[in-house]
Amino acid sequence: MNDCTCQKKKHREGDELRSLQNRLRRIEGQIRGLQNMLAEDAYCTDILTQVTAVQAALNAFSKELLGSHIRTCVVNDVRAGDNEVIDDLVKMIYRLMK
Measured in whole angstroms, how far is the alpha carbon of residue 4 from the centre of its chain? Predict the structure, then answer.
């Protein structure tokens, strides 16, 4: 069993937390909609259209979270002298752009 407690955390509250939770709830609803479409034998292109909408919603969620991360975590770490966060940010952006 791994007892590592080295993982970073970020407390979110207020508008940021509500906005991110609302986005994820909508995405969750879209996924359930896809399951229903499949169960109801919806036409392939109709399902694929909804898949595209889910992907766009996930991208919007990622953009919002990334923006928040840069404005808070990255800025705070750089101000504290931890420039390693910049390398981590670049790696994350590369992964998001795949």
Answer: 24
Q: How far apart are CA 24 and CA 93, in angstroms?
A: 20
Rg, Å, the chain Cα set = 18
pTM (predicted TM-score): 0.83
Cβ–Cβ < 8 Å for 61, 23: yes
Report the distance separating Cα 45 and Cα 24, nearest Å: 24
Amino acid at site 72: T
Going from the N-terminus, what domains does the chain have, and what CATH number goes with each? 16-96 (1.20.58.1000)
- Please count the other Cβ atoms lying within 10 Å of the Cβ belonging to residue 73: 15
- Length of the chain, in residues: 98
Question: What are the pLDDT digits (tens) for 7-27?
Answer: 788 888 899 999 999 999 999
Name residue 85's amino acid: V
Q: What is the mean pLDDT of each run of 10 residues along the chain (98 residues)?
A: 61 91 97 98 98 97 95 94 94 92
